[in-house]
């Protein structure tokens, strides 16, 4: 019964071709017809129990689909659902992380007076959480570790990586990420990357659902849903729709199809709206507001001369990011080559995670080095305190804020905690990147950049005490600029500039933020250096062309003919029945190339495997030779490639044409086929050669 | 001498291939070598006067290029120059328009008491300006009329429209636009569209300059420069970098190449920064600030329930935009079919413009209907007044603003002027679209939308006087949302949402603005309705595929083979000398297809025309038959298309592959060539069939 119903649902929208020309007009009529038809079918079916009730329910469901479908395509409801569902997930995660962090803080405060107990509370809590996250991932779904963005962009480029879209992965990633985030600022990890991955998994499921309802839009809908889901990730994470979409534009490889533009913005807006409304309804906020709302002066945000300082800050952030990325690449190579590391990371992931977390927590213990690096603040408090618009070095006037006290260690200038924070967090962050648990690395970079900016801002405020504009100088602005510039440089993207604006709702600094992010990107991208995500892609040998191009540009100019597997399955025009049988059984491709004769090998076109199967099914008994073009349609080849074409070009044409198979022929003679799986094999081979 | 120097400059950077692999490393050495080489060459040249001085100057220039080139590619300096130059142009235009508007206002005020003289001052001033602009365009450069955006996007899609990039066009467009804008809110025209066109022309010239310096990057640099220039247009116009880039992403057809992303943002940031710095240096502003800065409350920007009202406003704006676009399409058809109109618009453009301007000015005369539609305000004042955050319907507390008085006609409620404004401006705007002068239609739509939003906002404020949140209700927010939604719906873009945020610096309303713009776009785009620019493209029969797709979708699925001109020029593999000569003289294409024999017509590859010319030049005397592959290299075809491929697919593959010629073959037999000019011919033919 289930199958019949699905078939009926599918058949309802089988409009010819992929064009949506005047499809809307005919769709209504089809639906109307189908409702009536379906009811009569169900009522007259003699086998089913409760026929009438089921018929009524089904009728109502189909009517609902008609109503929804009349307003706009079903996919738009799926986009809205994607945004809303991801935002709810994001909100739930924030809620649980806040509770877990508060529990830790409460326990730590209760143990006041017992330093050793406090030490164990401070260190064992994050160590246990990391161990739990790691063992979850290790035992249930090993592909849920890490950021997920490198895998997402590989999938968005068109390659299939099934384990990265499974439902198990989603649950494990969600639980593991909650644990990682609850470990707090000690382990110093973020939420963005895994959340983009989670939203992609949600998108993949909604895409499947959409495909089930709309049978004629299979591939397009599923592919589009993934692109939209990547945009929704960031949007739902911070309630920042525009930067979410721009981030997805930037991570999608080489070409952004404009047909995704409106769906992305629509879904991102739904996600951001839901996320902010949830904050309002939960009582966190009075109305819809930015997540890290700041109170910079809008009348005189900065002096025009400060533009130069912002530019310097951008270049400086770019330089520091190069240093950070170098260390990151080094440690990635080290964990891949050092035998001890390989052994630990393959068998004792939970132990390794807890040991690293314990080490990091020991160093940040507030009664040791931690007091010089504001370690008692959570990630969110850290960012809020760094973006504060009052000058810390100035004599305190009305600074009753708790976070600010954390940064001012007694007797020492304000620069000391900032400098210690920057020096320590650099290597701690690099070490944390080796942890085998779901974790984002964007937010830590954002906060690190904010600290860099703050240091410069406070420095400028200190150096220029007598200037006229000093009184209005706002170190928070420098922190904002630094945050965007550093995180942009680390990820080689510009969208952090807009994210900084959306997170703080502070539009006055938009131009300096953009300028600094551009300069930082310029420094970080010089000499084709790989970005943070590129380094992971290369280390994992993912079939992602742009990162491969950075690691070894010449590889992409390899002619595709050199790497192609020789085509074994082809049919002669005058093929015998046995030949057809052999071809059908030995090939799994949907299109089977047809040549003039096996000797000449001149490519004529292709036959559909399904047509051949049909023919074989019908004519099992007859066995005399027949000409192939009497048996089935011979399709002409829309595009024919030469073996001299490069891997990159072949990839781009495959992406663009939307075909599943491209034929490669050398002066008319068939050389091979390019399919997604073949291309994936070629690129993975290339990646391993680096 | 000039030529020699250019050649030398060109030869300096002729690195092999188009890859920039390790190009940076070799470039410095090459430059160093060239400086020394150039000096010695100049000094030893016996013919030239002032050899030593010229050598020194040239040496310094080349050294400067080395220094600049060491920092980054020369194209980045061109992007910066493009942004800065366009911003200066924009600033100069604003300055002259302000002066001209002030002169008009001063004269009008001086004539107070003489109503008839005031009437003539009010009407003749814009009429004369429009006549001047029209006759300028008509007599010197007819292609400078209108918005320019439809032509720009056609060029960005890859087609060449040389008259639209000429230097004359740029000057005429600049002068004409200044006149149109100086006609003020009477004629109600904007600046965006023509400015995008002007910046594209600037970009084209800078692109040529770049090509001159960097000989090896010809096409890519010029194409990229156009894309960047389109982004810079909006950015320099309003000092709004992000929305400028997004606008250019949205207008570029179907695919946005990510390699343009950073250059676009860089150039747009330079433009926006320059534009704002110029405002600061000219004394208009104290520091860098948004153009239409508002003072909405950021603590409680709006009540969460108001989201629903914003959504309703979005849908309403979408519906009104459909009505406006319908009228616009009707008048475009009318001017193309009505014989009187055709006659006037071909011969008496200046007369027509002045008559229309006179009619519009008569109706907006402040002592007649004009008093009910705030006609004394300039475009800028109109927008500022509509975005004001106080409630007009509330009893005046401290509304000392002059603009607000204009909207409150004595004795009548505030809704009357708004309603009259909306009703009158609708048809006046449609009429103004027929004026044959350089003018933008975006800003009028933006202001119209703001008025729509304001009307709803004031209505809501009036209807809900007793509510708790009424006291904080901000009709300015509705105006902002309405402006973005209406202009977005008219142009079928989402970037106005961001432009609204960037123009006002008001981030608190970002989410409602985006939501309303999305909904308005949804309504406006339903049933494949063409946008404002699409209608112009269709009316002008421009070879722009997406607009063609909206007018008649089935046309794009025409197989390219049906429209292709049969290929007359081809060479046999065993071609005689005469045959080669005939082929070279009868074809202008760079690539000449080579076939097996003229009878079989099997395509083997192509020969370069330049190779053949070289051969003919050398072997003029010999006349015996030779095999072609001994004479020149026979290149394999990277991509071969079938005649069954659609026009749209052929266009996309041509765009992507970056080749200038694609070969179409039916089962190995040559059918024809697809070049940009051939494709342009085909699409223009299709466009005329609508």
UniProtKB/TrEMBL annotation, chains A, B:
It comes from the Eukaryota. The chain crosses the membrane at residues 68-92, 170-189, 227-249, 261-281, 307-327. It is a multi-pass membrane protein. Residues 634-689 form the CBS domain. Keywords: CBS domain, Chloride, Chloride channel, Ion channel, Ion transport, Membrane, Repeat, Transmembrane, Transmembrane helix, Transport. Residues 1-29 are annotated as: Disordered. GO terms for molecular function: voltage-gated chloride channel activity. GO terms for cellular component: chloride channel complex; plasma membrane. It is found in: Membrane. Residues 12-25 have a biased composition (Polar residues). CDD domains: ClC_1_like. SMART domains: CBS. The keyword Manganese does not apply. Belongs to the chloride channel (TC 2.A.49) family. This is Chloride channel protein. It comes from Takifugu bimaculatus.
């Amino acid at each position: 019964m289930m199958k019949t119903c699905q078939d009926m649902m599918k058949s309802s929208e089988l409009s010819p071709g992929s064009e949506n020309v005047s499809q809307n007009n005919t769709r209504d009529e089809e639906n109307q017809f189908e409702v009536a038809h379906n009811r009569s079918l169900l009522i007259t079916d003699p086998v089913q129990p409760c026929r009438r009730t089921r018929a009524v329910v089904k009728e109502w469901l189909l009517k609902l689909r008609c109503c929804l479908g009349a307003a706009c395509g079903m996919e738009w409801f799926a986009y809205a659902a994607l945004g809303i569902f991801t935002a709810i997930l994001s909100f739930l995660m924030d809620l649980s992380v806040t509770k877990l962090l508060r529990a830790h803080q409460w326990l730590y405060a209760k143990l006041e007076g017992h330093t050793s107990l406090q030490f164990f509370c401070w260190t064992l809590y994050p160590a246990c959480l990391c161990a739990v996250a790691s063992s979850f991932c290790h035992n249930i779904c090993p592909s849920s570790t890490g950021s997920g963005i490198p895998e997402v962009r590989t999938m968005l480029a068109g390659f299939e990586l099934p384990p990265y879209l499974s439902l198990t992965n989603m649950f494990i990633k969600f639980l593991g990420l909650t644990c990682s985030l609850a470990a707090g600022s000690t382990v110093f990890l973020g939420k963005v990357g895994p959340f983009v991955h989670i939203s992609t998994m949600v998108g993949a499921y909604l895409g499947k659902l959409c495909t089930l309802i709309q049978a004629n839009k299979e591939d397009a809908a599923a592919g589009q849903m993934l692109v939209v889901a990547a945009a929704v990730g960031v949007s739902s994470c911070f309630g920042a729709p525009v930067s979410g979409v721009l981030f997805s534009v930037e991570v999608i490889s080489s070409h952004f199809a404009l047909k995704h533009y409106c769906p992305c913005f629509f879904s991102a807006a739904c996600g951001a709206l839901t996320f902010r409304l949830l904050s309002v309804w939960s009582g966190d906020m009075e109305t819809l507001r930015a997540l890290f709302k700041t109170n910079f002066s809008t009348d005189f945000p900065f002096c025009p001369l400060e533009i130069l300082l912002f530019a310097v800050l951008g270049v400086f952030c770019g330089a520091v990011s190069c240093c950070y990325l170098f260390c990151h690449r080094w440690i990635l190579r080290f964990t891949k080559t050092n035998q001890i590391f390989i052994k630990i990371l393959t068998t004792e992931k939970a132990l390794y995670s807890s040991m690293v977390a314990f080490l990091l927590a020991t160093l940040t213990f507030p009664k040791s080095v931690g007091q010089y690096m504001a370690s008692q603040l959570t990630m969110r408090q850290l960012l809020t305190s760094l973006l504060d618009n009052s000058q810390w070095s100035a004599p305190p006037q009305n600074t009753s804020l708790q976070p600010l006290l954390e940064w001012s260690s007694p007797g020492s200038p304000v620069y000391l905690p900032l400098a210690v924070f920057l020096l320590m967090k650099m290597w701690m962050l690099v070490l944390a990147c080796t942890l085998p648990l779901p974790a984002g690395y964007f937010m830590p970079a954002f906060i690190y950049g904010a600290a860099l900016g703050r240091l410069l801002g406070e420095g400028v405020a200190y150096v220029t005490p007598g200037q006229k504009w000093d009184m209005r100088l706002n170190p928070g602005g420098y922190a904002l600029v630094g945050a965007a510039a550093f995180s942009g440089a680390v990820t080689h993207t510009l969208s952090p500039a807009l994210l900084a604006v959306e997170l703080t709702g502070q539009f006055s600094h938009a131009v300096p933020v953009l300028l600094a992010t551009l300069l930082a990107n310029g420094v970080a991208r010089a000499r084709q250096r790989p970005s943070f995500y590129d380094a992971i892609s290369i280390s994992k040998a993912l079939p992602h062309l742009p990162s491969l191009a950075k690691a070894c540009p010449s590889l992409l100019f390899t002619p595709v003919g050199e790497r192609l597997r020789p085509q074994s399955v082809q049919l002669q025009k005058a093929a015998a029945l046995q030949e057809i049988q052999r071809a059908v059984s030995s090939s799994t491709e949907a299109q089977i190339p047809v040549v003039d004769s096996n000797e000449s090998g001149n490519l004529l076109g292709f036959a559909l495997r399904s047509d051949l199967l049909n023919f074989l099914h019908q004519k099992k008994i007859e066995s005399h030779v027949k000409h192939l073009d009497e048996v089935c349609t011979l399709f002409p080849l829309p595009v024919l490639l030469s073996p001299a074409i490069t891997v990159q070009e072949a990839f781009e044409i495959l992406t663009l044409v939307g075909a599943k198979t491209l034929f490669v022929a050398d002066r008319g003679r068939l050389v091979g086929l390019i399919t997604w799986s073949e291309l994936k094999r070629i690129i993975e081979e290339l990646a391993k050669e680096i």
